[in-house]
Automatic annotation (TrEMBL):
Protein name, entry field: Adenylate cyclase
Listed PANTHER family: BLR0577 PROTEIN
Source lineage: Bacteria, Bacillati, Actinomycetota, Actinomycetes, Kitasatosporales
Organism: Streptomyces triticagri
Domain FAD-dependent urate hydroxylase HpyO/Asp monooxygenase CreE-like FAD/NAD(P)-binding: 12-198
Cross-referenced InterPro entries: HpyO/CreE_NAD-binding (IPR038732), L-asp_N-monooxygenase_NS-form (IPR052189)
Pfam families, sorted: NAD_binding_9 (PF13454)
Disordered: annotated span: 574-603
Lineage top rank: taxon: Bacteria
Length: 650
């Protein structure tokens, strides 16, 4: 490209999905204060997928795939809860934006109806408590992107390059060259931001043996894959297939293998859901470590006042933790405070919304609750005294491992038992009499917003980061707070009754049998029972792995020694997270060649060790991503302004 004039700054952002959209919104919000409108700023976006939705939320995916959030719980805009330095600029949630197409809400500029008639029809009928399709979210993200572009000052312009970035070169004290797959001439930039989103990776070695077995015996094997990209055509009708994993990827894959193959659900006269097979479905045998699907998402609002969060795990508590001179352990040092915070959210809602199910005044309960540690015997006594019915008490162990210690005499007995468990879970998550569960969920979100600071300070031990933070905690959070819509689990029950889905149990073990050429699945939940299948699907998303990443850009930077994987080492051991190491203070890429963060290269979100703070969020939760976007946008504008001023003066 031709040299830019001295009064023009150039920013290249690799990746144009929701994270970049949020960053652009914050650049637009902060530009009036921090950008001199007499100078030009050119922003280049590099992404082969549409800007706004990006790869994960692109329109080109099955209409069967849905979000696991209600329409009213999705936003990319700051609000009164946002603790950002820049200006708060409220905007519509997905539900509020969709209401304009039904004529029940104000128009939001730029107004344009989605071109897909199915998406438009969905938006016109979308209720606030509905769980939208990913295509509907794609339309919303496209609109947010166009609005953000429209709010930039005239001196800031954006170009989209529908291609892939293969390399970034350039000295730390000079212009950066971003090399594109479809052109010989690179883009020259003052600063580069990598906002690559969720990336695929080559399967880890643990899957190679199963893949080799499948090839030798003519069987089907699918390693971890994003559901929208999974090629399931090799799974035959009636074929027994093991799905290892019962999270959101499992829910998506089941939908694609059943409704996606022509089956349909029907509501019977008694209100139960039944499944009418097309005959093209496989027989799905599903198991996981817990052996049960993720808890259903709640489908109600708080009935009492919102709890004032955080109370026990906020900035002051984090300050006290960081003042400790010893390495911190999440389960020992953080979890008691985190658990108490979640309990506060739960019991605050119970006492305020359902006082008839409590046995003491809230002020009395809270005064005692404040004094006690979570694991003190007196805390259990207080809860038992104040909350008479055990069904209203918070039991993390029972929530986390519902099948622990349970054994069933036969596979059929287990199918019936797990159907009862799932039905009770869905009923509870859709019954506002149990709105205390939503209070706990909101406290979970508050905790999630505080944890990045603890992680950023590097105070957790290597073992605790690996086993607790990236292991137990992330799994527990997802299991409790990131489950599917209730209707998906009701569909799962119908599929189970129809014999299309069968449950294997907890602590699933997958093996191979060379004599029969089949995969085997066993579980201590049903001792002695062996499931045999001719197909194996790893029903979970690929984990971030810098060493195995599919990104040509990250591979090139790694080969050049310009980036590094996060590695935490101490007296307890070493943990390699697979994440790109960035500076917690400002998100700049750590460059091993420099021994410090690269001053002109920044990386946000997945796959960095900021631990993939979600790009969009529930309104009024002071979303961590919005805080990060605002801070980065302000630093970008200040840095680019100084760089251009120096160039002009020179």
């Amino acid at each position: 490209m031709s040299a830019d004039p001295a009064d023009r700054a150039v920013l290249v952002v690799v990746g144009a999905g929701p994270r970049t959209t949020g960053l652009l919104e914050r650049i637009a919000a902060n530009a009036p204060e921090l950008w001199d409108g007499t100078r030009q700023l050119k922003i280049h976006l590099v992404d082969p997928h549409p800007p706004g939705p990006g790869r994960i939320w692109r329109h080109a995916q099955s209409p069967l795939l849905r979000m696991n959030s209600m329409a009213e719980d999705v936003t990319l805009f700051t609000d009164e809860s946002s603790t950002v330095e820049g200006p708060v600029r409220p905007g519509p949630s997905l539900a509020e934006w969709a209401a304009q197409f039904a004529g029940s809400g104000p128009r939001h500029e730029p107004y344009e109806e989605p071109a897909d008639p199915d998406v438009l029809a969905e938006l016109r009928d979308l209720a606030s408590s509905d769980f939208p399709t990913r295509r509907a979210q794609s339309a919303y993200l496209d609109w947010v992107f166009r609005r953000a572009i429209g709010e930039l000052p005239p001196s800031v312009t954006v170009d989209w390059h529908r291609t892939t970035a293969n390399a970034v070169t350039g000295p730390p004290n000079g212009p950066q060259q971003v090399h594109l797959a479809d052109r010989a001439q690179p883009l020259t930039a003052d600063l580069v931001v990598l906002a690559l989103g969720h990336l695929g990776s080559a399967p880890p070695a643990e899957h190679e043996a199963n893949a080799d077995f499948a090839r030798r015996h003519g069987r089907f094997h699918l390693p971890p894959e994003f559901s929208a990209d999974a090629d399931l055509s090799g799974v035959r009708a009636g074929e027994p297939v093991v799905l290892r994993g019962l999270g959101l990827a499992f829910i998506d894959l089941v939908a694609l293998l059943t409704e996606g193959r022509g089956g349909r659900f029907r509501t019977e006269s008694d209100g139960t859901l039944s499944y009418l097979p097309s005959g093209r479905e496989p027989v799905i045998h599903a198991g996981s470590r817990r052996g049960v699907p993720y808890h259903a998402k709640t489908r109600y609002r708080l009935r009492g006042p919102r709890a004032p969060l955080p109370r026990y795990f906020g900035a002051d508590a984090v300050d006290e933790l960081l003042a400790e001179e010893r390495p911190l352990d999440l389960r020992r040092d953080l979890w008691p405070l985190m658990a108490k915070e979640i309990g506060f959210g739960h019991y605050h809602e119970l006492f305020h919304a359902h006082p008839e199910r409590t046995a003491m005044p809230w002020p009395e309960f809270l005064a005692a609750y404040d004094r006690l540690d979570w694991y003190e015997p007196d805390m259990a006594s207080l809860v038992a005294k104040g909350v008479p019915d055990p069904v209203d008490r918070l039991d993390f162990e029972a929530l986390d491992r519902p099948l622990a210690g349970r054994v069933f005499a036969s596979a059929e007995e287990f199918q019936a038992g797990l159907r009862t468990y799932i039905a009770e879970d869905v009923d509870r998550r859709e019954d506002e009499e149990f709105s205390a569960d939503l209070g706990a969920f909101l406290a979970l979100l508050s905790i999630y917003g505080q944890l990045p600071r603890v992680v950023a300070e590097g105070r957790l031990s290597a073992r605790s980061i690996g086993e607790d933070l990236d292991g137990w905690w992330q799994g527990f959070f997802s299991f409790l707070a990131s489950g599917p819509p209730g209707f998906r689990l009701r569909q799962l029950l119908a599929l189970s009754r129809a014999g299309i889905v069968r449950f294997v149990g907890a602590d699933i073990r997958v093996g191979t049998d060379e004599a029969t050429g089949t995969f085997t699945a066993t579980s201590p939940t049903v001792p002695g029972h062996v499931t045999r299948a001719t197909a194996l699907i790893e029903a979970y998303l690929p984990r971030s792995s810098l060493q195995r990443t599919e990104s040509p850009l990250l591979r090139d930077l790694l080969a050049a020694g310009a980036i590094a994987e996060e590695v935490v080492s101490d007296a307890e051991g070493t943990h390699r997270s697979g994440l790109v190491d960035v500076s917690p203070a400002d998100a700049h890429l750590r460059d091993p060649r420099l021994g410090r963060p690269h001053p002109r290269r920044i990386a946000l979100g997945a796959p960095t060790n900021s631990r993939a703070i979600a790009a969009f969020a529930r309104p009024r939760t002071d979303a961590p991503a919005f805080r990060q976007n605002d801070a980065v946008a302000r630093r970008l504008l200040r840095t680019l302004s100084r760089a251009r001023a120096a160039a002009s003066d020179g």
